[in-house]
Design brief:
Helix content: 40-55%
Radius of gyration: 20 Å
Distance between the termini: 48 Å
Strand order of the largest sheet: 1-2-3-5-4
GO molecular function, one term: transferase activity
Low-confidence stretches: none
CATH architecture of the largest domain: Alpha-Beta Complex
Shape: globular
Protein name: Aminoglycoside phosphotransferase
Keywords: Transferase
Pfam families: APH (PF01636)
Number of helices: 11
Order of helices and strands: HEEEHEEHHHEEEEHHHHHH
Strand content: 5-15%
CATH class of the largest domain: Alpha Beta
CATH superfamily of the largest domain: Aminoglycoside phosphotransferase (APH), C-terminal lobe
EC number: 2.7.1.-
């Protein structure tokens, strides 16, 4: 950890930002993520969270902590719950990489979308909140919050397929025929741009939200590294994709789960809730969007695997385990493509 954060240097930098450092600052590594190393900072009675870029050679445009900082600061007074942003440090000499500090938010995380920790009624309310917050993200007036330039103009999916194909090729370690076939299918079946362009989280799922210590209210949406201006169905499809994965610590999905018994909406019910909140009368078939979501996650996990092999991953052992799922994501993407 000492190679990732210099507590004394961070304390001195915080003081320059006007943050009161009452006594020796301590940093504790928060585990679980595979992207940007994250630390809990404690000084006196105050707690903050620091996120920094990982060490080593990084893919171009990856680990964009500056974008995370910018979007969360912009969303402070919107209906999207986010932590208060303290400051961004672009001076890599402070602790070895760009980082930002935000307020610590007390809350609960649910890694398992079955949410076994709560009763059925609260579980149903949590999923209602999940739909509401997703719609809130996609309803942000990007011009009024200063995010008009947060993503390029043009066809979002064509751009993303090109970007993630390049990222995948840059981190490819072994040939995966299913991934090659999925890339070809996406290139050949990208729908015509329908003009929808909103703020997109890029990795929206239940474990990237913090919920109040009691009750179903979301208190913070986290992990905005992949956020941009793009097509809102990308976020919606990412949720549906996650739910198709196996249950348990690795898959974190809902495959085979009796959702009605647990109070969890079906895919169709969730999509209908979302469409109603967004005022969309006629939702299209989701097969292309699902196929894209599986492809993009496969490309992301391939990058995690490559960083693990190169010794740059936050958790190398788990990174290799996650990387082993890339062929499965490709297979599921091809299956979704053929679903209609």
């Amino acid at each position: 950890m000492r190679d990732l954060i210099d507590e004394g240097a961070v304390a001195a930098w915080l003081a320059k930002q006007g943050v009161t450092v009452e006594e020796d600052l301590t940093a504790t590594r928060l585990t679980g993520g595979q992207s940007n190393p994250t630390f809990l900072l404690q000084t006196g009675g105050h707690r903050y969270v620091l996120r920094r870029k990982p060490p080593g050679q990084l893919l171009k445009s990856a680990h964009a902590v500056d974008r995370e900082f910018r979007v969360m600061r912009a969303l402070r007074d919107t209906d999207v719950p986010v932590p208060d942003m303290i400051a961004l440090c672009e001076d890599e000499t402070v602790t070895g990489a760009m980082f930002y500090v935000m307020a610590h938010v007390e809350g609960r995380t649910f890694d398992d979308p079955r949410v076994p920790e709560v009763e059925r009624a609260e579980r149903a309310s949590i999923y209602t909140a999940l739909s509401r917050v997703l719609a809130a993200i996609h309803s942000v007036d990007v011009a009024s919050v200063g995010l008009s330039d947060f993503g390029p103009e043009g066809d979002y999916f064509a751009r993303q397929i090109g970007r993630w194909t390049k990222q995948y090729r840059a981190s490819e370690t072994d040939p995966i025929p299913e991934m090659d076939a999925l890339i070809d299918w996406l290139h050949d079946n990208t729908p015509e741009d329908d003009g929808r362009r909103t703020l997109v989280h890029g990795d929206y799922r239940i474990d990237n939200l913090l919920f109040a210590p009691t009750g179903p209210t979301p208190v913070a949406v986290l992990d905005w590294e992949l956020s941009t201006l793009g097509h809102p169905f990308a976020d919606l499809a990412a949720l549906l994709m996650q739910w198709r994965m196996p249950t348990g610590d690795e898959g974190r999905g809902l495959a085979g789960v009796d959702r009605a018994a647990l109070g969890i909406p079906s895919d169709a019910q969730f999509v209908a809730q979302y469409a109603d909140r967004m005022g969309i009368a006629d939702m299209p078939a989701m097969n292309f969007y699902l196929a894209f979501a599986f492809f993009r996650m496969g490309a992301i996990l391939q990058g995690v695997k490559k960083r693990a092999l190169d010794g740059n991953a936050s958790d190398p052992e788990r990174g290799l385990k996650l990387g082993a799922y890339v062929p499965e994501f490709a297979r599921q993407g091809l299956a979704a493509a053929k679903d209609g």
